[in-house]
Design goal:
The protein is an alpha/beta fold. It has 6 helices and 9 strands, in the order βαββαββββαβαβαα.
């Protein structure tokens, strides 16, 4: 029987940072067994276009049964499961290759938006029940995170795989020089993402309740 794999992606540092919690979390979970599947971690360049090429290569190589992409979001205090990816690049800063697309589609002749196929509400409820700050978010922004999220959902559309995106807070060492910014320890985020993966693998039907009651 073919061994099941979970693809967990994170980004390299960007925006002048020397570390990215998304990749540190993914790297920490590399090789772990979660719900009878092995976690395969993959570091993505924080670059428009190139990130999608790297993602497609990882999907082809590993053929996962579940994909969760992680990204850093300054200003967030919770593990934020994104509900919708929009077909729009509108970068406030250049990416790591110096590209700064404004008002451009992620993919030409693609839908306006895609929804996550993860059981978001059940995942958030499970995380909250275990004591982790978690929420459903309705905006993944318009930088490389949303770009990657949209490309992921487009690539897997109609294949029946669960896939989606989670934004994570800054690490304490990042927030220490950003007054007023929230942060979360790497250990807490690793534990929370581990649980999120288990919930994504084992939840049958998502909860039917307003996401507003989960925040």
């Amino acid at each position: 029987m073919k061994h099941k794999k979970i693809l967990l992606t994170g980004f390299e540092p960007f925006g002048g940072e020397s570390i990215n919690p998304a990749w540190e979390i993914a790297r920490a979970l590399e090789g772990e067994r979660v719900a009878e599947a092995s976690v395969v971690s993959h570091c993505l360049p924080c670059e428009f276009g190139t990130a999608l090429e790297s993602l497609r290569a990882a999907l082809a190589t590993h053929q996962p049964v579940l994909v969760l992409a992680l990204g850093q979001a300054a200003g967030r205090a919770s593990l934020s499961l994104e509900r919708v990816a929009i077909n729009l690049d509108d970068a406030r800063i250049p990416d790591n290759a110096g590209r700064q697309p404004i008002d451009e589609p992620v993919l030409q002749q693609a839908p306006t938006a895609y929804f996550s196929t993860l059981p978001l509400k059940a995942m958030v409820a499970g995380l909250q029940a275990a004591g982790y700050p978690a929420e459903v978010s309705h905006s993944a922004g318009t930088f490389v995170c949303n770009h990657l999220f949209f490309g992921l959902q487009h690539q897997l559309h109609g294949q029946g795989l669960r896939s989606g995106f989670m934004h994570v807070p800054l690490l304490p060492q990042q927030a220490s020089h950003k007054p007023g910014q929230a942060s979360m320890s790497l250990q807490t985020m690793v534990e929370g993402v581990r649980l999120a993966l288990a919930l994504a693998m084992t939840t049958g039907t998502d909860l039917r309740q307003s996401a507003g009651t989960l925040n």
